[in-house]
Predict the structure.
Amino acid sequence: MNNTDSGRKRILDSAAFILRTKGLGAARLSEIAQGAGMLAPSIYHHFKSKDELVEHVMLAGIYNNTRHIVAKVEVLGPETPPAERLRAAIIAHVEFLLSGDDFSSAVARVFDDLPGEMKQRVLAAYATFDNYWRDLLVAASPAGNDGQRTVARKLMIAMLDSCPTWYRAGRLSPTQIANQAADLFLKGFL
Amino acid sequence: MNNTDSGRKRILDSAAFILRTKGLGAARLSEIAQGAGMLAPSIYHHFKSKDELVEHVMLAGIYNNTRHIVAKVEVLGPETPPAERLRAAIIAHVEFLLSGDDFSSAVARVFDDLPGEMKQRVLAAYATFDNYWRDLLVAASPAGNDGQRTVARKLMIAMLDSCPTWYRAGRLSPTQIANQAADLFLKGFL
DNA sequence: GTCTATAATCAGATAGAC
DNA sequence: GTCTATCTGATTATAGAC
């Protein structure tokens, strides 16, 4: 985010950062505006309401994160074993979250707190992300049953999504944490 | 929670349920009061402020949950291997969350969103809980290093704490989910 | 496209009767 | 111990100048 970005982009970036940092309940339009170098009413030139702004952040976070993961997995050769594809996806997800992408971290932080009807709409976009993981788990463990794989997927995503809340730059790198998370889950799941 | 409980207890129970269900940002005193069979201003006879009420719910949740886990672990004989103690703790934690204890679920749901100074105070109580897990992990994996065990603990707690957000009564029982989570983590960690 | 000024709303909190 | 009535403050949102 820099001064030459359009007002709309600066608002979105600032909102993602605030949502990721403070959560939905504590996110103030005035603070989002300040981060974008303007005052609160100016936001309404770009977005119809606070809810609409939040929804845009969620959709962008889900879309970018899914695209990043899929790209990292699909670059692997067609002979790559399913477990390796799953490993690549886990590492891509954690590295994306810890790389400082505020949009994906905002989704991880705020998704559960979204108001009812917005949640339904965001959930529709989230299904692409969720189904991709589902397919990776099915491929990696074809002998398992759906119920257990669903539980494993929920546990895995919660585990990975938590990283931005406790990670602090320093001793361990994002890559190290991503690899540890992948080892932990794959050893446990397979 | 029933009609013969004291007003204070009914308020705490209702607050725990609302916090667990809607999160901190959407928790309204009017709704908490309604769940306790009274109107919002009556809450102030029992609590000084909304924040004080929330803090009591957090402290009760942490205290009860910790006590429950410790009891389930310490009942095991002194010859019990550390890995089995850790397994018992994981199962106890998940079963407690999924048994319908609104206080521990409220902590899992709302902890990250607490306002600054309250978070510090709640964190002091949370340390007892967190340190107990730390010691269980150290005992179960004495060869590991602190950094990796800390990451493993954070990942594990996030994974277990997520259960109330996605669990729905039906196909799988709390005990089945608890056992699957324990298998997943122990196989991955050890 | 951003500002100043202000409206509209809503939730937490207080006063005082019963 | 709970109620009705009210206050206060904060925050989203609008109107209109520049």
